[in-house]
Write a structure and sequence with these properties.
Order of helices and strands: HHHHH
Shape: rod-shaped
Largest sheet: none
Oligomer: single chain
Number of helices: 5
Strand content: under 5%
Number of strands: 0
Radius of gyration: 26 Å
Length: 93
Amino acid sequence: MPFSDHERCADAVGWLYQFLDGQLDEVRATDIQRHLDECLPCLEAFDFEAELRQVVARRCREGVPETVRLRIIGAIQAEYRSVDGMEGMSPSH
């Protein structure tokens, strides 16, 4: 019995992440690619996930601007100084 469109879509979407990562064997990858070529909703899901991965990868590679990094370091150092200054104080102060 052939798969219904819904079953084919569920199968394609179920393998989407492995397909994007190139982790499927050639037969499965060819089947998924053929389905994506024929099914606009699944192709749109694929395109969305592929673009999302690219955005995340690009954002993760970008470094923190130097001014932000220095502000964070300054805030951490100020926090440590305020904690160190309170060590000898009693709770009533």
